[in-house]
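Much of our argument rests on the idea that a fold can be written as discrete symbols. The amino acid sequence and the backbone structure tokens for this protein are reproduced below:

___
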Amino acid sequence: MILTSSSAVLLSTITLFAQLALGLPTTSEPVHHESVRAIGELSHRDELHDAGVVWDKVVRQSPVVGPTDPRDSFNNRNPDVPGVGYPRSSDADPAFTIPEATLRAAIYLPSGFNSSTNRQVVLFVPGTGAYGHESFADNLLKVITDAGAADAVWVNVPNAMLDDVQSNAEYIAYAISYVKALIGDDRDLNVIGWSQGNLATQWVLTYWPSTVPKVRQLISVSPDFHGTMLAYGLCAGNFGKVAKAGAPCPPSVLQQLYSSNLINTLRAAGGGDAHVPTTSFWSRLTDEVVQPQAGLTASARMGDSRNKGVTNVEVQTVCGLTPGGGQYGHSTLMAHPLVAAMTLDALKNGGPASLSRIRSQMFRTCSNVVAPGLQLTDRAKTEGLLTTAGARLVAFPTKLLREPALRNYAT
């Protein structure tokens, strides 16, 4: 993986701390190479890399993958709501494979959510290695709440979105149907995603067609709709080194490889174009996780062959030689002043966001380092998401050597 120097040092440090804490080897030992070689010869069914010397010990640390804040819990007690639809909402949808109680428990509804106002609702969807509240609490959740623009709920996918993207998508598909059934037709439901949360949501909108009319719009921050060329660099053992194929990775990381089977299948099925009005934000060149992210080749760029309405925003191109045109990373983009302003514009007007509607305030907006209402400490906390996600990625016990097989409905 090609990293900035600070990111490489950070990720190398995470790996070293994990190795020392667990008593793992800090150099390549022959027994480890033999283990990897043996694993590589197993059938696809047995490719979980928890049989080697290293991962036997990492399994014992698996609680690291879990949430640290009750608002990131995936064991929530939510009421049964009529009209959700299980095992499927329509005959056109694939059947859920995860128990309904498990899917419902992953949705976090803040206290008093449904009776507080008649405002529209935002469903927040986190990225790889993260849970819902921790992803957005110090950025867009705060911006939207302070502005009174919408009520917010979020989904906390077990194992922090590190499992199979197709399983992660089931939690999102169910959350969309559940929340829409809960709020009714009089309140709009918007989805805001970060990183993989957007890819998985686009998978849902492509393969669960019943969700499309339930979603007013999708607002995407740092998405990887075309995957990332840096995916192998996210795998434990590659931090600070030259990224290489064949390293054990969490399932969703392998599926986010640029032009992976999952990515190619999604795009062949029309997932490279919007199903609902979509606004996509990305940071050119300085995204530490997703590349390419520049111009017409940006992985975040969404097509609009269905004429749903799409606004693609490369923040440096729009903000130019202002503070907002500076370096923003994969996570800190969520605290960007232009991202906040255009998100509020999209929520107010129905999406997608419009640069022309905020043109009069563009210079003032881009002159800020963080969104109005946020502090530099909020940006620092948002940046810290990558540290947390990296630690979970190291600790994740069930790594694979090849991406999971596609589900029958996608083949």
Q: What stands out?
A: Residues 5-410 form a domain with the Rossmann fold fold (CATH 3.40.50.1820). The chain has one domain: 5-410.
